[in-house]
Amino acid sequence: MKRSPDRPDTSDTSDTSDTPDMPDEGSNTKQRLYEYLEILSAYRLAMNTINWDQSVCGAPAAGVSFRSKGYGVLTREHYRYLMAPEFRTLLNEFSLEPDSLEGDIAREWLVELARIEKIPKDEYTAFMTYISKSEAEWEEAKRSGDFDSCKQHYQFIFDTARKFSEYIGYEKHPYDAWIEMFEPGMTVEKLDHFFGQLRDEIVPLLAAIREKLTSSPERYGFLSRTVPREKQKRFAKRLLEVSGFDLSRGFLGESEHPFTNAMSIDDVRMTTHYYENEFVSAIFSVLHEGGHGIYEQNFERELANTGLDNGSSSAVHESQARMFENAFGRSSSFWSGLYGEMKESFSPALDDISLDAFVEAINRVEPTLIRIEADELTYPLHIMVRYELEKAIFEGALEVEALPEAWDRLMRAYLGVVPAHHGEGVLQDVHWAAGLIGYFPSYALGNAYASQLLHFMGQEVDIDRSLRTLDFGEILEWLKFRVHAHGKRLKPEQVILEATGEAFDPRYYIQDLKSKYEKRYGLR
After folding, report:
1. What is the pLDDT of residues 357-389, one digit of tens each?
2. Is 460's pLDDT higher than 60?
């Protein structure tokens, strides 16, 4: 998961006319614009560092109040610079430049500011303060499987989200306002069509595969063999090195829910979670977060500290993560060059397991309860469950207190499985507790974007050879030139069009799934 684009906190309730010291008045207008951006980036760095410390570094619970006060001071000052009249004047001036970097910077900031200004400051403050606490309490609720202890948080967050939709505005559906935050130009109407296409193809295919399944669970039992955390940690770094992530400009830590947080182009941090009896979980989460991290490291240098040093959208970001996790990380070509090394590193856990057996196991179709452990075919069904629940809440068709029952019903309908407790059900994801309403569709869209990008990459790059030789140079060069370097200068539809020469078309994704799994399970 890529943490959401930084949303400026408005925790200051003082009069913003009492502005802080501004950039040097002797500077020319371009210099002054960049001075503001540098100051805003410095505050963002400090706030992100506090968040990282609390999520990853085991900051003591007793220090929450002290850290919150410090965070409040930083966010107050960040907001005051953000809303400074001169900064707005500079943005308005440069936004008139159609083709310059400064014009792109200004237009991006103005869109963000226009959204924030529609929300009453005290309500926005309450929301941002609340989610900083609810995320920490969610961790304990997930471990215990206690939905009641988290229900009040979900209620407040969804109630506030619906209220903010009315402030921000939308054309057809209140959920659109939140979807737009993560995927510009996307709407419920478009997503209904997209998910409808997937549902029509995937559900029958999954049913056909289930009829063909004959192997016993013991066949893949080796995936539950014990691999000590330290062995997994060493191999995780090897995976990042092989895939092209620069560890001299990044870091891999641990957290309850894997995520990536870029402090800057040269300071990209990510996390995973190691399970000693489920070693493949960390393998694929590291490849996934590594895809996010490589994207962050490959922005053009001129975008640093401008607000454009971020992914085009959440779905484009997820396309990179899912590409490395699935298209590369589950391929026999990739493991043909790396399995022997992993086998030795994890010995004796895999001593009697062949490459073919391992590749078969990591590509099997098996409906599971946990989204981040789902196979490629059933994964979008997990996203549909979350999308339909969020949409129903915005429509008023579902109450938050009924989420667990609705979750179980949809999981049974789409995947044929039902959680034994809420920790492996409605509480498994951090997104709702963190206020990331509308993010989930990005995962499915990211899969579809990745398929289309890979189709056209394959016309210019020998992907199979690159994977077999563990040489990602040509792959990374293709991605950097066509996707990564642009940051937020291009909208998602522009990224896909310029990289592939075609508008977004989910049929590439659907065909990839059908081709892979119909062949694997003898359905054609």
Report:
1. 999 999 999 999 999 999 999 999 999 999 999
2. yes
Architecture of the CATH domain 188-520: Orthogonal Bundle (1.10)
The encoded tokens of residue 274 equal: 């190691």
pLDDT in tens, 471-496: 999 999 999 999 999 999 999 999 99
Answer yes or no: 289 catalytic: yes
Q: How far is CA 106 from CA 30, 78, 415, in A?
A: 11, 17, 45
Q: Can you tell me the distance from the alpha carbon of 147 to that of 425, in angstroms, rounded to the nearest whole number?
A: 10
Catalytic option among 102, 201, 278, 289: 289
Token pair listed for 515:
């081709």
pTM flag (> 0.85): yes
Which residues belong to the annotated binding site for Zn(2+)? 288, 292, 318
417 with 411: CB under 8 angstroms?
yes
- Asked if the model's pLDDT at residue 16 lies above 60, the reply is no
Cβ 504 vs Cβ 448: under 8 Å: yes
| Rounded percentage of the chain residues whose pLDDT exceeds 90 | 80
| Cα–Cα nearest to 278, from 209, 329, 225, 234 | 225
| Tens of pLDDT, residues 181-227 | 999 999 999 999 999 999 999 999 999 999 887 666 678 999 999 99
**Domain layout of the chain by residue ranges:** 1-117, 188-520
- Crossing angle for the helix pair 229-243 and 279-297, to the nearest 10 degrees: 30
Angle subtended at Cα 482 by Cα 376 and Cα 264, rounded to the nearest 5 degrees: 85
Task: Read off φ and ψ for residue 169, nearest 5 degrees.
Answer: 95, 155
Report which of 192, 188, 209 is spatially closest to residue 200, judged by C-alpha positions.
192
In three state form, how does the secondary structure of 157-192 look? HHHHHHHHHHHHCCCCCCCHHHHHHHCCCCCHHHHH
